[in-house]
UniProtKB/TrEMBL annotation:
Domain Phosphatidic acid phosphatase type 2/haloperoxidase, residue spans: 51-159
Source domain of life: Archaea
Name of the protein described by the UniProt record: Phosphoesterase PA-phosphatase
Membrane-crossing segments per the record: 24-44, 117-135, 141-159, 179-199, 229-249, 261-283, 289-308
Pfam families for the chain: PAP2
Length: 328
């Protein structure tokens, strides 16, 4: 039997009491969880940090989905009856998006917070998020390790380029920044399309589809580039919104009272949820141009609300305080 399957079986045989905490750690690696945290930093702590986390989320997600398509490898529960499907996901497995996203998100926070205790906390969380995906049977150990390595590479490049690129972009007019943000999102989609085209006539094996459905009860459709479209939409929304927000700054620099900060977050995240839910109702099932467009618009609208709409509303509601531009 494959060594990686043995490792998964070993983890799954430890104790059923681990199911709940592993699901929790898995959730902590979900994009939806990051979309709860990024607004907190953007609205309540440090707009520059929140803005760049949003950009990093979109870029990392796009890179991950392209690599998944390039390698087009199955998840363990798709192909092995010895693996219990404690979770499910319709995309390919290599590299793990949870592992990669955890490294980029928490690694970037650690690089900015620069506290030993937080760096240790981030490292432990990154490991637990990766292990949780192996435990759930949705990733091979190789997928998780690859995700960590790709995440480190993306993080290193982002940390190296963020300041020089940010300074250069800040010299452009707002319309040009918005146009460039849209072009960047199209580049992500183009790479996704090229990766799919490179597969040629390759089709998902029927055995993978049958195995996934049998063991999880959920169908798979790994050739549907949903995650690439979401990543592109998030990138455009965060970048365009940040460019258009003329008065985004350290909104918490002069406002330390918990009441106004809580009001900002409650109002802002509530509208974010409504945007995500309402657009979700309109997205048709299956693959179609309408589905592609609405998935993109949902992500872009939610991200633009976080980076532009909500701060503007806070200003009108007298919740913004005295702000100055430091999103870049």
């Amino acid at each position: 039997m494959d060594l990686q399957i043995l490792i998964i079986q070993m983890l799954q045989s430890l104790s059923p009491s681990l199911d709940a905490p592993m699901r929790l750690f898995s959730f902590l690696g979900q994009p939806e969880f990051y979309l709860l945290l990024i607004p907190f930093f953007y609205w309540c702590r440090d707009p520059r940090l929140g803005f760049r986390l949003g950009i990093l989320l979109g870029l990392s997600g796009g890179v991950n989905d392209v690599l998944k398509t390039v390698f087009h490898m199955p998840r363990p529960y798709w192909v092995s009856p010895e693996v219990a499907a404690l979770n499910s996901y319709p995309s390919f497995g290599l590299p793990s998006a949870h592992a990669q996203g955890a490294v980029t998100f928490w690694g970037y926070l650690a690089a900015n917070i620069r506290r030993r205790w937080f760096s240790l906390f981030a490292a432990v969380l990154v490991i637990l998020i990766g292990v949780s995906r192996i435990y759930e049977g949705v990733h091979y150990p190789m997928d998780t390790v690859a995700g960590w390595l790709v995440g480190l590479a993306v993080l290193a490049v982002f940390l190296r380029l963020e300041d020089p690129v940010g300074l250069r972009l800040a010299r452009l007019t707002v319309p040009r920044q918005v146009l460039l943000a849209f072009a960047a999102s199209l580049v992500l989609l183009a790479f996704s399309g090229l990766a799919l085209a490179a597969l040629g006539d390759w089709q998902v094996p029927e055995a993978w589809k049958a195995g996934a459905l049998e063991r999880s009860g959920e169908p798979i459709d790994p050739l549907f580039p949903r995650d690439s479209i979401v990543a592109a939409g998030l990138l455009f929304g965060f970048a365009a919104g940040g460019a258009a927000q003329a008065r985004t700054g350290s909104m918490c620099a002069v406002e330390r009272r918990p009441g106004p900060l809580l009001a900002r977050y409650a109002v802002g995240i509530g509208v974010t949820g409504v945007i995500w839910y309402v657009f979700g109702l309109a997205i048709p099932g299956g693959e179609s141009l309408a589905a592609y467009v609405l998935i993109y618009l949902r992500a872009a609208t939610a991200a633009a609300w976080v980076s532009f709409g909500a701060p503007e509303l806070f200003t009108r509601m007298n919740l913004a305080g005295s702000v100055h531009d430091e999103t870049r």
